[in-house]
């Protein structure tokens, strides 16, 4: 079957690159059927749910096979199944397109279909998430919430869009202690840093506005900013953080409405910006009148050097700071915040109220108490991260000597350069060998960085060591 010209005209044709398709496919290898059946099944789900819209042009069979680390024949067989059902169509020399409406793309697999979010059945070592488990003191604080303050709060309506007063106070004290004088009016409590970043960015972005982000950067930022309609332009970022000369050039070249950076423990590179670069970023913001969002979610996981750097926002009026208790105490609290000018905080409080009426008060009570113990949390994180980072670096030096890890200054992951730009295919093969990690393009605004992987060392040391040994076996088999 060939794609109808009429239907081609009716759809907006969109080319879907191999790395983007890989991200959409997610955990497609379930190890329960043949690879081509599993691939066909997952593509069906993507089409049925609208993740791949009619008119989407798929990568060539050769490119998709290379990116997935499977043979071209496997891809051909998977697409043959979909072609036979009319779900996709191909024309010689013109590629393969999604052809059908969502309703027709029903699966023959029935209950074999899995939702995107469902846990994989098969055991695998997961080196993707760089978040440490929660600290025991989080559970201890939960055991203490039945005090008189809780009763007092429960006697009220509990809708607090700006956040619980004592938590806003505790966050203000946290910044003041770091050398950035802060009042509760500067703080909006959010459901994690992720919400803070999106709310703050939405205040500056309209459809098509240009935003400068680091290349690489945290995937959550790429997704949120893209969803707001921003056009993202990458600024080089390396082991010392953002390349300030490149930032200055790009600001002049693109007149962005916003710059988003991670000054204090960058995800994925683990860098921390030094004092000189901080002041240069701040002066670029002031001179060109461009606001900056500094996502400092990982700020309490610094391992080397100054453990409590003065926040970037101390250098400029237009610098907003995003923070969170996720990495210091526990991600499951879902408590983060935005620090900004009180006028903007008042405006965004109304927006947040309209979205979710406020973050869980129970979680905020616990977070407020925990923040008073931030120094202890930093110490506990430091000792665990120091040991696990050393172990991961040693295991890589031993088993994968041709890999080049950046030694992170903080956080729970290694950003590693591979000798060849094979990361997407390698990650797919590693998954089939029972270990998961993230390929560089996950962190790229331009689907580049195929010569990098991010490997977390947040697991217990034994798991990390076994994972790295499995990765070495996969790598050696692939490159021999
Ligand atoms: C840089 C960065 N920003 C934001 C987040 C999201 O944090 P939260 O759990 O507070 O929403 C993460 C989580 O990994 C992160 O790495």
Overview of the structural elements:
It is a single chain. This protein is of the alpha/beta class and 480 residues long. It has three domains: 108 residues, Orthogonal Bundle (Arc Repressor Mutant, subunit A); 114 residues, Aspartate Aminotransferase, domain 1; 236 residues, Type I PLP-dependent aspartate aminotransferase-like (Major domain) (Aspartate Aminotransferase, domain 2, 3-Layer(aba) Sandwich). Helices cover 42% and strands 15% of the residues. It is built from 17 helices and 18 strands. The strands form four sheets. Strands 6-13-12-11-10-7-8-9 form an eight-stranded mixed β-sheet, sandwiched between helices. It has a four-stranded mixed β-sheet with strand order 1-2-4-3. The chain starts with a helix and ends with a helix. The N terminus is likely disordered. The chain binds pyridoxal-5'-phosphate. The site of pyridoxal-5'-phosphate (PLP) has 14 residues, from α9.
């Amino acid at each position: 079957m060939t794609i109808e010209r009429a239907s081609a005209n009716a759809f907006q044709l969109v080319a879907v690159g191999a790395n983007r398709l890989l991200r959409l496919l997610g955990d497609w290898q379930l190890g329960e059927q043949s690879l081509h059946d599993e691939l066909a099944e997952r593509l069906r789900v993507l089409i049925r749910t609208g993740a791949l819209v009619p008119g989407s042009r798929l990568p060539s069979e050769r490119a998709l096979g290379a990116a997935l680390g499977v043979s071209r024949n496997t891809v051909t067989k998977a697409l043959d199944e979909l072609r036979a059902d009319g779900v996709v169509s191909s024309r010689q020399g013109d590629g393969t397109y999604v052809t059908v409406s969502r309703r027709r793309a029903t699966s023959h697999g029935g209950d074999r279909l899995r939702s995107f979010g469902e846990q994989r059945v098969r055991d695998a070592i997961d080196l993707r998430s760089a978040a440490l488990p929660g600290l025991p003191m989080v559970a201890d604080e939960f055991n203490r919430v039945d005090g008189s303050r809780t009763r007092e709060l429960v006697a009220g309506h509990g809708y607090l869009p700006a956040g619980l007063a004592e938590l806003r106070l505790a966050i203000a004290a946290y910044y003041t202690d770091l050398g950035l004088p802060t009042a509760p009016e500067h703080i909006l409590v959010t459901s994690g840093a992720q919400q803070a970043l999106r709310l703050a960015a939405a205040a500056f972005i309209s459809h098509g506005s240009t935003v400068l982000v680091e290349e690489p950067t945290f995937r959550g930022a790429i997704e949120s900013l893209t969803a707001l309609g921003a056009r993202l332009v990458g600024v080089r970022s390396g082991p010392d953080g953002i390349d300030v000369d490149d930032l200055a050039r790009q600001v002049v070249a693109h007149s962005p409405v916003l710059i988003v950076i991670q000054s204090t423990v960058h995800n994925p590179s683990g860098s921390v910006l030094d004092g000189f670069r901080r002041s240069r970023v701040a002066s670029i913001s002031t001179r060109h009148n461009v606001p900056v969002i500094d996502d400092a979610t990982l700020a309490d996981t610094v391992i080397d050097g100054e453990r409590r750097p003065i926040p970037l926002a101390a250098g400029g009026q237009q610098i907003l700071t995003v923070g969170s208790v996720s990495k210091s105490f526990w991600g499951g609290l879902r408590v983060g915040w935005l620090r900004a000018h009180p006028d903007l905080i008042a405006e965004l409080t109304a927006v947040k109220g309209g979205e979710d009426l406020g973050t869980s008060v129970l979680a905020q009570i616990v977070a407020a108490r925990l923040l008073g113990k931030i120094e202890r949390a930093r110490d506990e994180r430091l000792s665990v991260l120091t040991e696990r980072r050393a172990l991961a670096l040693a295991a890589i030096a031993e088993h994968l000597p041709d890999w080049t890890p950046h030694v992170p200054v903080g956080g729970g992951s290694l950003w590693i350069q591979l000798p060849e730009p094979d990361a997407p295919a390698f990650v797919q093969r590693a998954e089939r060998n029972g270990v998961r990690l993230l390929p560089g393009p996950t962190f790229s605004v331009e689907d580049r960085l195929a010569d990098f992987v991010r490997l977390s060392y947040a697991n217990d040391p034994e798991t990390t060591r076994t994972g790295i040994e499995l990765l070495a076996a996969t790598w050696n088999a692939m490159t021999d």
